[in-house]
């Protein structure tokens, strides 16, 4: 008699989580992206005021991801111990303080050190939020939640440009350079959001006062069933699972996505400035165009891919779109390049929206925390490679076309990797292969 009520209670609980927790997570991710990418708008200012060349800028922008990669896995494991409320807010407050410190950059070495420390401070935030979603929602609801969460990244692309451009217009106020105003105000805002998040985040289903007893029980049962399905692998060590071919494939595919994503993030403002005659604010507004298009595409796609029997074909299509966009960006005028980069951005963001539910579902529960962190940290090294590569090519050849060709090839290689990813279908979890099972899905 009571069985029909369970799905209803679970549905209500999921809706409450999406309504109460996801807006805060989206805001945190939005600020996270704002703080890690705002440096893309001040390349010329850093060169003029601090003496940072294009190569040094690309290297410094990428150093963030070295610190990020080194501390990602231990940070995510500490989140399991302390809970999201403590650890995610600690991460946010710490990175905000580093951003404030960037106001005082006066030489290239200080730029390098603070970009590295920013990566250390932010390490664990994104995979920690992904893990948090798996602790609250079963697989059937995670695709929608992931699309909402990643919408924060797309939204950051929409607001970063106008906000950063407006703050740069403060140049000279109080005798302070605009880029110093930008770092000081954005870093302070991050600290304040982190403090507020500490009062509202709820780490465990059992602690949610806004769920009634039936909703807690239904949601806990659904999450537990999902966890049991992901824990049915044979008894092998965490280390062996972490070097499983599926983890390596996930890491490689995500690396290709981040190559494109961060190349767009750090070099789009420079491409737009080639149009000529634009103010800092106008450059910021135009830089929001790829993000607006990406957000629309992400939400439109997520409405039916959650119900798709296999996410891999959709992932392959989005990666091909990304490859086409980066290739077309080597042709035509700056305005045509903006349109091509927009296409590449749509493909990259939509690929990430499909990728993370597959990673969440495909990893054995015993390595969910370190596995997600490993995929994210190593994959995010693409954020080191692409800005450094583009800066080097710009200094040595005067063009970034070679880098765009590399992005095109990387996206096409990721299409091949996507064919072999698990987690594409409901219940498809990473299991250690036995003698009767191939290590890769057919």
Architecture overview:
The chain is mainly alpha-helical. 76% of the residues lie in helices and 0% in strands. The chain is built from 19 helices and no strands. It has helices at residues 5-20, 22-37, 43-49, 54-82, 84-101, 108-122, 125-136, 139-168, 178-200, 213-230, 238-242, 245-273, 280-287, 289-305, 312-328, 334-362, 368-379, 382-397, 401-418. The longest helix is centred in the middle third of the chain and has 30 residues, at 139-168. The chain is globular, with a radius of gyration of 21 Å. The two termini are 42 Å apart.
What keyword list fits this structure?
mainly alpha; 442 residues; disordered C terminus; Growth Hormone, Chain: A; disordered N terminus; MFS
């Amino acid at each position: 008699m009571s069985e029909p009520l369970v799905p209803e209670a679970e549905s209500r609980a999921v809706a409450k989580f999406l309504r109460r927790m996801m807006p805060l997570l989206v805001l945190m991710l939005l600020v996270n992206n704002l703080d890690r990418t705002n440096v893309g708008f001040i390349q010329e200012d850093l060169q003029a005021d601090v003496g940072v060349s294009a190569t040094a800028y690309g290297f410094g922008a990428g150093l963030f991801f070295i610190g990020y990669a080194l501390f990602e896995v231990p940070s995510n494991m500490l989140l399991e111990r302390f809970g999201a409320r403590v650890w995610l807010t600690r991460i946010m407050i710490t990175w905000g303080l580093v951003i404030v410190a960037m106001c005082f950059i006066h030489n290239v070495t200080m730029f390098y050190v603070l970009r590295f420390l920013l990566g250390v401070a932010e390490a664990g935030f994104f995979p920690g939020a992904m893990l948090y979603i798996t602790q609250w929602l079963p697989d059937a609801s995670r695709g929608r939640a992931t699309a909402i969460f990643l919408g924060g990244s797309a939204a950051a692309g929409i607001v970063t440009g106008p906000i950063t451009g407006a703050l740069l217009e403060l140049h000279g106020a109080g005798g302070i350079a605009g880029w110093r105003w930008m770092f000081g105000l954005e870093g302070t805002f991050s600290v304040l959001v982190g403090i507020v998040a500490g009062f509202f985040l709820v780490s465990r289903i059992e602690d949610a006062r806004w769920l009634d007893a039936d909703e807690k029980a239904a949601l806990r049962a659904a999450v537990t069933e999902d966890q049991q399905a992901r824990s049915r692998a044979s008894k092998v060590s965490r280390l062996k699972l972490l070097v499983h071919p599926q983890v390596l494939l996930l890491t490689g595919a995500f690396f290709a996505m981040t190559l494109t994503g961060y190349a767009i993030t750090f070099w789009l403002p420079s491409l737009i400035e080639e149009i000529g005659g634009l103010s800092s604010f106008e450059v910021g507004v135009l830089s929001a165009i790829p993000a607006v298009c990406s957000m629309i595409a992400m939400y439109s796609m997520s409405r039916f891919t959650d119900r798709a029997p296999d996410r891999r074909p959709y992932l392959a299509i989005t990666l091909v779109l990304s490859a086409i966009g980066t290739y077309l960006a080597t042709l035509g005028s700056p305005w045509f390049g903006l349109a091509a980069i927009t296409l590449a951005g749509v493909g990259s963001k939509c690929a990430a929206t499909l990728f993370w539910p597959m990673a969440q579902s495909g990893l054995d529960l015993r390595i969910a925390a370190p596995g997600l962190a490993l995929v994210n940290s190593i994959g995010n090294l693409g954020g080191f490679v692409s800005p450094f590569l583009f800066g080097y090519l710009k200094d040595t050849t005067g063009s970034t076309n070679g880098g765009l060709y590399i992005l095109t090839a990387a996206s096409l290689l990721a299409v091949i990797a996507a064919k072999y990813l698990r987690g594409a279908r409901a219940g498809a979890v990473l299991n250690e292969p036995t003698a009767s099972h191939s290590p890769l899905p057919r």
